[in-house]
Amino acid sequence: MQRTCALSDSVSRLRYVSGARQAALERLGIRRVRDLLLHIPHRYLDFTRVTKIAYADVGQDATVVAIVDRVSRKATRNRRLQVVEVSVMDDTGVLVATFFRQPWIADQIKAGDVVALSGKVTFAYGFKQMKAPFHEVVGSAGEAGGYARVLPVHPVGEGVTASWMRRIVAAALADVGDVCDWLPAGLVAERGLMTLGRALREAHFPSSTAAAEAARRRLAYDELLCLQIALLTRRGLELDGVEPTVHVTDGPHMAALLAALPFSLTDEQRLAADQILADMAAPHVMNRLLLGDVGTGKTAVAAVALAAVADTGTQAAVMAPTSVLARQYAEKLGPVLDAAHVSWALITGATPSDERALSELACSRGELTVVFGTTALLSEGLEFSALSLVVIDEQHRFGVDQRAALRRKGAGADLLAMTATPIPRTLALSLYGDVSLSRIRRRPRAGAGVTTKVITPDNLDLAWGAVRDAVAAGHQAYIICPLVDDKDDGSSLDDVPEAMRSTSDRLRSAVSTLEDLRASVLPGIACDLLTGRMSAAEKDLAMERFRSGRTKVLVATTVVEVGVDVPNATAMVVLDADRFGLATLHQLRGRVGRGDAAGIVYLSCAAKRDSRARQRLAALEATSDGFELAELDLRLRHEGEVLGYRQSGGVSLEISDLEADADLVELAHADARAIADEDPRLLSPAHRAMAIEARDRFGAYFEELERA
User: In the prediction, which pLDDT does 503 show?
Assistant: First the structure.
């Protein structure tokens, strides 16, 4: 008997699912029927475009369907390199498919099977070839005409094959029937979307590739809309019953601070500051993200907001991701705040206990206006008497619990988040759909500029020569490594997918590189180490030695990526540069060329010239526009990898493609805003199903409130 609306049922209630197969599905994150139906294919084999072997052009991609003639294992000189060759034939010719390091294929494919092969066609040893093609067994001998016109290929894992996944999904669609559409019918029609039931069927078993894409876009819109609704609903719950602070934005502290700044704000900085001050003066809680490329002066804009807090007689907390950056904020803004008669203190893990106790006491009494710090600001010992503004720098580096914990120290506090990581608009809307955006694109002081060059490890002598020249000229240099020491496997530091990395087996570590530099490469030059594993006090000491010029070459990991400002640094060498994303590399090179002398950055990469890794790095040679690079990074990588966030409650988009679905991101953002304005709590009958769906998909955004 057909069952309807059973999406919350366990997959164990479906046909063909029990025991080991259920466990295999759960390893893929598929625990309920709804999880299975939203586990859509990651590609399709379009058999309406199958090419006969004889007509498959060499050098071009093609899909062929043929019968397996022979499967053989080949021995190689390298015993670890196992090769399987599969010879296939159709009525026009023979093709040999070669698979490397996949010995199990010899057990999966048998003579007489009908297989589909997709890949680039080459020619060698008298036969057309495909190296490591995508493959799928579609039937047995005599069934060559029995496969579907468009065959779905679902993501699978150990314990469940692609063919079994198709069988299980087909059974689920048959048993669940027409699912209830949680979107209002009017919205479905207005946006020209498929109904949910049809979209699920066409996504899994499409009638055409065009139908498959239309179905995916409906499901992608669902995902994006749910995310926006979750963000806006959480925001409403977070501020429920909260009395916002209406800040004074034209008082004496503001005038004194603007006079104390060593420069006038640029038009872009002034616009951003005006937007922030307008939010702070309004009778609602500010939630604003300030986007600014490297060196665009976000710190000066933040100082204006701090002055408004002082004029209001309340307090502000400025939280940075590292003690180095927190101290730098204090050193840059401290003198300006002093001139504006605004009291401040710095609290990090390296702050002496007696000094920290005095600062905490002054803060609780309201004698401190601004407190700079790291996650040390989250400690129970630090209490504010009237916290009205929270400034978080590079907020994606903090977990949702950490951000929420700081805001809970001041009910109704305005939030100003800042980032120097260039973020494409579509990604910003998806990550921060509940915030207002301000952007600063141009630097007030361009500096002498930076030249970027991509080199191979064989040419590192060029880079070391540039470092020696910089030191000889009285300047300083950074050497960046992907690993801290040789014991690291690199798994926690990778921010680039496997397919985009170089083939170098041994990655350079900061510890071993420092030893090499001291021993042979840069003998007699003062080199030092800075990594995230050092204590806060050790990091501060290493950074102070570098700032003062006692250290000439700083060997570091990406702990120097954000905000570190040493104008005398003019050279940088990034080892194994293909291990980093474009946004990270752009941030890193922003550490040099900040003064009067031009900067030079060498990116060492072992990948071949025509590889995707080298293509990515070549983009850094071609442009210094961080936002342009961010858009490219988003096209090449998953949105989560662009920022490097892997934290509790982080965004997880399984269906949407933020680059390809940019129009859907804009539509979902606008639609969610309209729905929230009409029905903030989603209590109307038309929106109740929507609220349930959003919480089901992005429940992590609500958990932090429920734990509070």
Answer: 41
